User: Which sequence fits this backbone?
């Protein structure tokens, strides 16, 4: 299949021979969004961009990454108008709530359903994030692209066979989408290739972690490290996704 503009990022991710190409893509999208929101292009000064960020807000993880990104003025502008929006919504939510009478049923209820409207508003805000939303949209497109390539490009399928597989989180999403996007024959091929791929590479990670532990035994002081020096972060990535050893992504003036 001839390379198309929309297939380049995913092919680049697979060609990187990372522990998971979708982790690679996720990092790229996240860093691009941090640059867009706080970078030298000064999107934080554009009113319609701040309208979007005011509405969506950011999750705890991305607030931390925004702070570590290092653009103090950009963060302050984003927070200024978002705080104004949040204060207005908070005041309406608080002023419209009147606590009801406590009953024995409500006191001892173990239901996980949120019944308090103030808590419901807060939880809704905690789950909303401009950067997470951007990745969700991009991720859906990359999943579609993966299966377009899987069905049409034998070279892409071979690259997946030769890859290190996927993290468990992204592999689960691939399996979900495979059941929707592939016919029976294609699904059989997908699982015939990816199941042993995942098993083999999880075993590889296990061996690397095991050897890392052995290297702390004086008996193996002079033995080679093999592939174990970064085994911990690769194992963490394989299990949950992401790059735990990544340095802070910082503002470039």
Assistant:
């Amino acid at each position: 299949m001839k390379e198309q503009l929309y297939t380049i990022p995913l092919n680049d991710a697979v060609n990187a021979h990372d522990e998971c190409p979708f982790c690679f893509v996720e990092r790229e999208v996240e860093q691009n969004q941090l640059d867009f929101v706080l970078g030298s292009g000064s999107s934080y000064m554009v009113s319609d961009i701040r309208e979007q960020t005011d509405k969506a807000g950011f999750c705890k993880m991305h607030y931390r990454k925004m702070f570590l990104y290092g653009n103090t003025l950009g963060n302050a502008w984003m927070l200024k108008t978002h705080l104004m929006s949040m204060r207005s919504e908070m005041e309406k939510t608080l002023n419209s709530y009147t606590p009801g009478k406590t009953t024995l049923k409500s006191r001892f209820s173990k239901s996980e359903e949120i019944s308090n409207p103030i808590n419901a508003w807060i939880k809704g805000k905690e789950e909303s994030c401009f950067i997470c939303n951007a990745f969700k949209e991009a991720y859906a497109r990359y999943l579609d692209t993966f299966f377009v390539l899987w069905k049409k490009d034998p070279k892409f399928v071979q690259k997946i066979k030769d890859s290190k597989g996927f993290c468990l989180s992204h592999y689960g999403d691939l399996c979900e989408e495979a059941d929707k996007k592939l016919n029976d024959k294609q699904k059989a091929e997908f699982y015939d290739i990816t199941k042993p791929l995942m098993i083999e590479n999880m075993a590889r990670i296990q061996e690397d972690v095991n050897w890392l532990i052995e290297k702390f035994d004086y008996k193996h002081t002079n033995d080679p490290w093999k592939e174990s020096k970064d085994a911990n972060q690769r194992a963490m990535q394989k299990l949950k996704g992401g790059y735990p050893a990544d340095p802070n992504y910082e503002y470039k003036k």
